[in-house]
Design goal:
- This protein is mainly β.
- The strands form four sheets. It has a 29-stranded antiparallel beta sheet that branches. Strands 1-2-7-8-5-6 form a six-stranded mixed beta sheet, with no helix packed on it. Strands 24-25-29-28-32 form a five-stranded mixed beta sheet, covered by helices on one side.
- Keywords: Cell outer membrane, Membrane, Receptor, Signal.
Length: 750
């Protein structure tokens, strides 16, 4: 159910400064706490730095709330964070990528108070030393250092009311005694993710419209345990364990279908039920050795990741009438779609610092992943009665990735600095199926060798003016679920089709930045994506490779490499406090220009082509450009001298823009909040999307006469009430956060 929802809502990856699924590509992230002193926003050689240690924005907020109010960061779905001009944002802690999977991270960010953060670094174009894909950016959270021994922690409870009610709770504790540090977290909650859909497609004479609701109940529990021991003055040993579990039973789809043909109109009901559960466990062992007094050090990581998802669906189609009555069942499809992922990883990094402000970094990594997808699919037809159609498919995907990099960073003078680097990656993968429907699916081999250069240059003209330029080349490998050749059924005639033939895409990023007085900025960004991985609709009467023509027209949302794409953006903004910090504002305004150039005429998995009623071949094309206005502002107003009452006003607007599925209509949201700080307690009320304008609408008209329309209400309008309590010795030093060797793999499990 979630896969269908996320695949259909491709808008999550394209809106608001080039936002992405549940996403089906959500990225692995982690985070810990937050606090605030003086507020400074400045540009360093390869990153923007937001010093939040004294800002009124942080007190009483969650980490997620604070990140949403950081310059260049945004969220249109209140689930994922995006960086201006980037497809996705990876969360780092103290320079190390988090160990949490995307689902646990979203819960963790919203349940973690924002009192422990010193500064937030936004790396829009990551260097060669970072293991990132596509045009991903990095959000690095730098925690405050607390030196004394003792115990501290926090507890947080919240309740959110939208179409349904949801609750969350978390408990975190940090302990330090001498050379030993222990950090632990336990969080969980339950909610029902609700959506209302209208799907409409067809031609001038034939059409298929589906309207109704999708309800997805979720229960989550998870956490982490980090143990850090100082072996001596130069070396540390750390062990990290992350775990998360999700149970989503009795997810339902209830869609009423109106099918109009030249022969008349018929009505059906699609009533689907899904039971799913997933588990994510990872262990990482880290060794760090400081080799000199300048900060040179060696880092070695070894990790194991185990991900399991079990999904069982019962999809039923019933006859109906204009009055929406439920009649005889005509078809029933059972699907059993398990996925098991095992990953072994290793990573070595060495940074050598020299006295003349020169740093040389070298490193390498190895990832070995095996994905087992033992899918079962059986269809029963009752009108007329036909023999069951069973289509099992046991698809196994093995992948080996070898990577190595070198970077050189040099501060030439007080005004000029730069970094140059290169990353070399080798990818060997093999997908096999012991009972594939076609011969090509039995063995799919993919091998890549990529040289990925990086360059950045920073020039501080004077104390008030700074200019910088960055270039980076990256590749994006498909997520593991994307290449599992199964269908995710929504109705008889609407479903998503995964594609094991998807190959990695390449992305080339350029960025030019100008800063004035560390408060005003201009950012110009350009990204070129070759063989873009996306989802596009193919509709019509399917024609199989043997020439058999389907009885009814269908609409397939197909995962594929869809040509090339360019994204260009220009943005100006301000981050500043006024009236002795009574008013703090973060305002961005800009334009984004998308150039799409792709076409598709064949389902890559089945080989099916599509025809209209006249027997003419149908090709889906998207060679349309669009220019969109983007506006975002976050404001915090202090209501009293004692800094105990705060009022928040946040707003974003994303103009209509062309994406792969068609023209995405404009999105907008106005959010208000009030919070009260009393000693160690913080009480807050947030009202999100109060105008109920953050609703997805996509429309596409093809030259061949086909049209496609999607209306998706995700019930973003909600009210959340939260209570946070901090306890213990607030000077406890945080445990080191370590980048796990398997982090790059985790981002592809969802």
């Amino acid at each position: 159910m979630k896969r269908i929802i996320l695949s259909m809502a491709i808008v999550f990856g394209t809106c608001a400064f080039a936002q992405e699924k549940k996403t089906d590509t959500a990225k692995t992230k982690n985070i810990e706490g937050i606090t605030i002193t003086k507020q400074v926003f400045k540009k360093q050689s390869d990153r923007f730095v937001y010093d939040v240690a004294a800002s009124p924005v942080a007190k009483g907020n969650t980490t997620f709330d604070l990140l949403k109010q950081t310059p260049l960061l945004s969220s249109t779905d209140d689930k994922t964070l995006k960086i201006a001009g980037k497809n996705n944002a990876l969360i780092y802690i103290n320079g190390r990528k988090s160990n949490m999977d995307a689902e646990s991270l979203a819960q963790f960010l919203k349940n973690t108070p924002a009192e422990n953060i010193q500064k937030i670094e936004v790396i829009t174009v990551p260097g060669s030393e970072f293991q990132v894909e596509s045009s991903d950016g990095i959000i690095n959270i730098v925690l405050k250092k607390k030196m004394s021994d003792g115990l501290n922690g926090n507890m947080r409870m919240s309740n959110t009311t939208s179409k349904y009610n949801g609750s969350q709770a978390s408990f975190s504790a940090n302990y330090r005694k001498g050379k030993l540090g222990v950090s632990a977290n336990l969080s969980g909650g339950e909610n029902i993710e609700a959506q209302t859909y209208t799907l409409r497609n067809g031609t001038a004479t034939t059409s298929n419209e589906s309207t109704g609701d999708i309800d997805d109940p979720n229960k989550n529990i998870g956490g982490y345990l980090n143990i850090d021991y100082q072996l001596n003055d130069k070396s540390n040993l750390a062990l990290s364990w992350n775990t998360w579990a999700n149970k989503s039973y009795n997810s339902t789809v209830n869609l009423f279908n109106t099918i109009k043909t030249e022969g008349g109109t018929k009505y059906t009901w699609s009533k689907n039920k899904e039971d799913a559960r997933s588990y994510n466990n990872s262990v990482n062992l880290n060794y760090e050795l400081k080799t000199d007094s300048l900060g040179s050090k060696l880092n070695v990581n070894a990790a194991y990741l185990n991900y399991k998802r079990f999904q069982f669906t019962d999809n039923r189609t019933h006859m109906s009438d204009v009055n929406m009555g439920i009649g005889k069942m005509t078809t029933q499809v059972f699907q059993d779609l398990p996925q098991i992922i095992n990953n072994f990883s290793g990573m070595v990094d060495y940074n050598q610092k020299f006295k003349n402000d020169l740093t040389v970094s070298i490193g390498g990594n190895y990832n070995k992943t095996k994905t087992d997808n033992d899918s079962k699919n059986i269809t029963y037809s009752f009108n007329p009665v036909e023999a069951p159609d069973s289509r099992p498919n046991h698809f196994i995907y093995d992948e080996n990735i070898y990577g190595m990099y070198v970077t050189v960073e040099k501060k030439i003078s007080d005004k000029i600095s730069g970094k140059i680097g290169v990353r070399y990656e080798i990818t060997n993968s093999l997908g096999t199926s012991d009972n594939a429907p076609t011969g090509e699916l039995k063995r799919i081999e993919r091998n890549y060798k990529n040289i990925l250069p990086y360059l950045s240059f920073n020039y501080a003209i004077n104390d008030k003016n700074n200019i910088s330029y960055s270039f980076s080349s990256r590749m994006r490998r498909p997520s593991f679920w994307e290449i599992n050749p199964v269908r995710n059924i929504l109705t008889d005639d609407n479903y998503t089709q995964n594609n094991p033939f998807v190959k990695a895409s390449s992305t080339y990023n350029q960025e030019l930045t100008y800063m004035y007085k560390n408060s005003y900025f201009l950012i110009l960004n350009h990204s070129y994506i070759q063989d873009a991985i996306t989802q596009v609709p193919l509709q019509g009467y399917p024609v199989s490779p043997d020439g058999t023509v389907g009885k009814n027209p269908v609409l397939r949302y197909i995962r594929t490499n869809f040509g090339n794409k360019q994204e260009m953006s220009a943005m100006v903004g301000i981050q500043k406090s006024f009236f002795k910090q009574y008013w703090t504002t973060n305002f961005n305004i800009g334009v984004q220009h998308n150039i799409n150039n792709g076409s598709l005429d064949t389902d890559p998995t089945t080989g099916d082509r599509f025809r209209n009623k006249k027997g003419e071949d149908i090709v889906y094309t998207n060679k349309t450009n669009s220019t969109s206005l983007l506006i975002q502002t976050n404001n915090t107003i202090r209501l009293d001298k004692k800094k105990t009452w705060f009022f928040g006003v946040n707003y974003f607007f994303v103009d209509k823009q062309q994406i792969e599925l068609g023209l995405l209509k404009s999105l907008m949201s106005l959010d208000l909040s009030i919070k009260k700080v009393w000693n160690e307690w913080t009480f807050a009320v947030n009202a999100n999307d109060i105008l109920n304008t953050n609703i997805v609408k996509i429309e596409d008209f093809q030259d061949n006469g086909n049209y496609n329309y999607i209306h998706q209400n995700r019930y973003n309008r909600n009210v959340m009430v939260s209570l946070t309590y901090n306890f213990g010795n607030q000077k406890v030093k945080k445990v080191r956060d370590i980048e796990g060797a398997s982090d790059a793999i985790k981002s592809r499990t969802r």
